[in-house]
Amino acid sequence: MKEILAQIKQYKKDSILTPVFTALEVFMEMLLPFIMAKIIDDGIEKGNMTNVYIFGGVMVVAAMVSLLSGFLAGKYAASASSGFACNLREAIYRKVQTYSFSNIDKFSTAGLVTRMTTDVTNVQNAYQMIIRIAVRAPLMLICSMAMCFAVSGSMSTIFLAAIVLLGIVLGIIVKKTMKVFTEAFKKYDDLNASIQENVSAIRVVKAYVREDFEQKKFKKASGNLYKMFVKAESLIALNSPVMMFVIYSCIMLISWLGAKNVVAGTMKTGELSSVFTYVISAMMSLMMLSTIFVMISMSTASIRRISEILKETPDLHNGENPAKDMKDGSVDFNNVSFSYKHGSGKMVLNNIDLHIKSGETIGIIGSTGCGKTSLVNLISRLYDVDDGSVCVGGKDVRDYDMEYLRNQVSVVLQKNVLFSGTILDNLRWGSENATDAECIEACEAACADEFIERFPEKYETYIEQGGTNVSGGQKQRLCIARALLKKPKVLILDDSTSAVDTATDAKIRAAFAKSIPGTTKFIIAQRISSVQDADRIIVLDGGRVNGFDTHEKLVETNEIYREIYESQVKGGGDFDVQSAGKEEA
Ligand SMILES: Nc1ncnc2c1ncn2[C@@H]1O[C@H](COP(=O)(O)OP(=O)(O)OP(=O)(O)O)[C@@H](O)[C@H]1O
């Protein structure tokens, strides 16, 4: 809650002025029936036109002040609530940027999107209500009651009884609605998950002709939400008839009692008319209060969900005096064990002890899910180890400034992502200030220049969102060029040339040897041909190092490696190590 309230600070002035003007608006509104009664009783009934003019003038001034205050209160409320929502969105966005991979793993993308959109909008609406209506409604209620008692004590008892009855009924409705709304917001996540998954993977959906299935899934999520809202809104709809019933019953009773009093001369006509106005105001304010409770209950669920994000502490931090210099690109895994859930005991990597010299090219090969990506993720400290240590340039990765480390260790991830913008814009993600010549040089090393030159607009070619207008292999080469622009000490290619033909793959590796000889290179690949000319190759099996040597030695001594090699030489294609493992068993 503290983190959420901190976002209001900037709009403190607007948040204070809103209730101030709202209060002024209510006071002036409450005066109007009283002045009206005076006009009738002291002016019209007594035939005194001076009183009519005086009270009429006061009435006009009160009405003008009330209108102006209402306008100002609305303006400040809009500014405070929209500003609050804007700050809240920014705070969530900023927080998510600080998350480590393991923090991100905890929240679904759909969940994050719902929190930044629907939940923030709920909180915004609730806040606007709180600073405006939550001040207006109780003030109106209290003032109406007080004025009513001042005019006629006996009739106010009818009014009081009506308010208590209405309060109880509305309370029951609100309680039931709150429960339904809390459940409804959970369903929003399902709906957003369905939209997000379908839209981001629309090509796969179409390729597998799963449109009907996806449509049914969406219809179900949307239908669930529909049912929840219909249930909640039906309950809220009861507000109006209950309210009208109470108001009209009240008016009938007051008319009956009032008429008797006016005839008996114990009450004036103007007083009776003002009592009617106060009764209606009080009932209206009760109705407003019930709406506020519903809004607050809706936003409580949203506030809880937003707090979860803001409270989450990033589990990777810079140490004290983090290092911002790196001797070289040597990498050491010192008895490293790693699990995605620390303390769960489910080790993904076990006792890895590897020592790699700066400038070496290291191939990594192994079956699907054996821990190749997990191993290289530790070098740029995307996760922390459970046991042991990972050192780059002779220093523990935890002792580096994380931004500095990640600029020195460049990773081309398995899932390549390009952003909407020109090719040059995308390349400059690697180095903001890279010159055109440096960008072209990086593209030459990544063998991307040949296809870029064929585009009519060359380096100014616009890449659509998600890189949909370039092929898989072209995307991979652009991502490699982007990583090269960082001029890293360590370069990691996580299966990044899988969509590139074998000849281009070889050309990229040859270009690396020439253009970045001092950079330590890790190449994760499924093809032996992608790693066989590496200085050494790590063979991973079930999270353990099964072999670490040159291609020739491994073919001779390592059973797993030899199997992969032979199957690829004979089969001439990529090897699914997992199926080979099964055959072996
Ligand atoms: N973010 C994650 N959270 C939990 N478990 C994970 C996560 N990422 C991977 N794993 C698990 O860790 C193990 C190793 O995964 P990893 O991605 O390192 O394998 P890999 O050898 O790179 O596989 P592939 O060749 O398919 O890319 C797998 O069992 C996988 O299910």
From TrEMBL:
<feature type="transmembrane region" description="Helical">
    <location>
        <begin position="235"/>
        <end position="256"/>
    </location>
</feature>
<feature type="transmembrane region" description="Helical">
    <location>
        <begin position="158"/>
        <end position="174"/>
    </location>
</feature>
<dbReference type="GO" id="GO:0015421">
    <property type="term" value="F:ABC-type oligopeptide transporter activity"/>
</dbReference>
<feature type="domain" description="ABC transmembrane type-1">
    <location>
        <begin position="16"/>
        <end position="298"/>
    </location>
</feature>
<feature type="domain" description="ABC transporter">
    <location>
        <begin position="331"/>
        <end position="567"/>
    </location>
</feature>
<dbReference type="GO" id="GO:0016887">
    <property type="term" value="F:ATP hydrolysis activity"/>
</dbReference>
<keyword id="KW-1003">Cell membrane</keyword>
<dbReference type="Pfam" id="PF00664">
    <property type="entry name" value="ABC_membrane"/>
</dbReference>
<feature type="transmembrane region" description="Helical">
    <location>
        <begin position="52"/>
        <end position="73"/>
    </location>
</feature>
<keyword id="KW-0067">ATP-binding</keyword>
<dbReference type="GO" id="GO:0005524">
    <property type="term" value="F:ATP binding"/>
</dbReference>
<dbReference type="Pfam" id="PF00005">
    <property type="entry name" value="ABC_tran"/>
</dbReference>
<dbReference type="InterPro" id="IPR003439">
    <property type="entry name" value="ABC_transporter-like_ATP-bd"/>
</dbReference>
<keyword id="KW-0813">Transport</keyword>
<dbReference type="InterPro" id="IPR027417">
    <property type="entry name" value="P-loop_NTPase"/>
</dbReference>
<dbReference type="InterPro" id="IPR011527">
    <property type="entry name" value="ABC1_TM_dom"/>
</dbReference>
<feature type="transmembrane region" description="Helical">
    <location>
        <begin position="20"/>
        <end position="40"/>
    </location>
</feature>
<keyword id="KW-1133">Transmembrane helix</keyword>
<keyword id="KW-0547">Nucleotide-binding</keyword>
<dbReference type="InterPro" id="IPR039421">
    <property type="entry name" value="Type_1_exporter"/>
</dbReference>
<dbReference type="InterPro" id="IPR017871">
    <property type="entry name" value="ABC_transporter-like_CS"/>
</dbReference>
<dbReference type="InterPro" id="IPR036640">
    <property type="entry name" value="ABC1_TM_sf"/>
</dbReference>
<dbReference type="InterPro" id="IPR003593">
    <property type="entry name" value="AAA+_ATPase"/>
</dbReference>
<feature type="transmembrane region" description="Helical">
    <location>
        <begin position="276"/>
        <end position="296"/>
    </location>
</feature>
<dbReference type="GO" id="GO:0005886">
    <property type="term" value="C:plasma membrane"/>
</dbReference>
<feature type="transmembrane region" description="Helical">
    <location>
        <begin position="133"/>
        <end position="152"/>
    </location>
</feature>
<keyword id="KW-0812">Transmembrane</keyword>
<protein>
    <submittedName>
        <fullName>ABC transporter ATP-binding protein/permease</fullName>
    </submittedName>
</protein>
<keyword id="KW-0472">Membrane</keyword>
